[in-house]
């Protein structure tokens, strides 16, 4: 009887031991499965985070119209314009680029398209609407243009047919004076110096100043400031583009023409030009674009069609 009881106890203990071993094995496997699942979830979350921080999508390229001084300077500075075998300048901007006819239209168009890229006068940049990206590590600011850190810049020129006289001369004297160049700098442009305190002649009459849409905003401010010291003068500012500004000055439509670039050889042969400020060209993207910096090569590739999707840009 005792032997039977002992045998039964041994069998019970053996069964419990076997059950316990099985439970431990199952618990270990379950734990391993849970760990693997957690690792997979973490990896997926990391992938999702990386994807959320990366910009992708077909790039919408925006450019300015033919005749725009900003376009002329932009394509030259980034090497988008090249000379062909005959020495003729060729603008290699991608054919599918959408054309905007003014600085303000460029900004509103980029602001309304997440995948867009464009460029505007630094002095006209509205960072509430769009984002200016760094170029080759440099921020687009007047200070960086002045010290040469930001290299995407060009001159603002005015021009007259022959030497200016009367009211045109008096207004130009104001623009180049200490007071006029203060207006230039107050509006985000770079002054290259001034001629000292303004000594007006009290000239009367009316003149028309016309041309570049990039120069127009600062010219309007100069007009307002000049009116405060010479209320007898009437100055009309007409916005068009740099080429129209120069040709219309040559034919006498404008008394003073505005160009947001250097004068061309054929223009300089007939006009007297004068630099009134330096201005940067800001490369702009939509504020939702996660890319904050581009290289000069990136811009060249985008505008010539070698790069067509934001995912191709190093991020």
From TrEMBL:
Pfam families: PBP_like_2 (PF12849). InterPro entries: PBP_domain, Phosphate_ABC_transporter. Residues 1-19 form the signal peptide. Its main location: membrane. GO terms for biological process: phosphate ion transport. One of its GO terms (cellular component) is plasma membrane. It is found in: Cell membrane. It is a lipid-anchor. Transmembrane segments: none annotated. Belongs to the PstS family. Part of the ABC transporter complex PstSACB involved in phosphate import. The complex is composed of two ATP-binding proteins (PstB), two transmembrane proteins (PstC and PstA) and a solute-binding protein (PstS). This is Substrate-binding domain-containing protein. It comes from Hominiventricola filiformis.
């Amino acid at each position: 009887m005792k032997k039977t009881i002992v045998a039964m106890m041994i069998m019970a203990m053996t069964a419990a031991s076997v059950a316990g071993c099985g439970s431990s094995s199952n618990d270990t496997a379950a734990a391993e499965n849970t760990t693997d699942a957690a690792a997979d979830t973490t990896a997926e979350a990391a992938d999702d985070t990386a994807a959320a921080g990366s910009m992708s999508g077909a790039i919408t390229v925006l450019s300015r119209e033919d005749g725009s001084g900003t376009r002329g300077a932009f394509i030259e500075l980034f090497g988008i314009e090249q000379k062909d075998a005959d020495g003729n300048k060729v603008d290699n901007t991608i054919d599918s680029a959408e054309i905007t006819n003014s600085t303000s239209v460029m900004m509103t168009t980029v602001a309304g398209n997440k995948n867009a890229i464009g460029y505007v006068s630094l002095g006209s940049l509205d960072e509430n609407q769009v984002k200016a990206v760094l170029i080759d590590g440099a921020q687009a600011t007047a200070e960086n243009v002045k010290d040469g850190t930001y290299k995407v810049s060009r001159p603002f020129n005015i021009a007259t047919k022959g030497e200016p006289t009367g009211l045109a001369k008096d207004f130009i004297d104001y623009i180049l004076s200490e007071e006029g160049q203060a207006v230039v700098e107050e509006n985000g442009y770079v002054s290259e110096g001034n001629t000292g305190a303004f000594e007006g002649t009290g000239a009367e009459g009316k003149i028309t100043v016309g041309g570049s849409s990039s120069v127009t905003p600062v010219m309007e401010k100069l007009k307002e400031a000049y009116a405060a010291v010479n209320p007898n003068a009437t100055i009309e500012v007409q916005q068009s583009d740099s080429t129209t500004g120069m040709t219309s000055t040559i034919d006498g439509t404008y008394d003073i023409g505005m160009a947001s670039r250097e004068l061309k050889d054929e223009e300089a042969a007939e006009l007297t030009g004068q630099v009134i400020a330096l201005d940067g060209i800001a490369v702009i993207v939509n504020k939702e674009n996660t890319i904050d910096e581009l290289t000069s090569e990136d811009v060249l590739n985008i505008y010539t069609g070698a790069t067509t999707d934001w995912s191709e840009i190093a991020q």
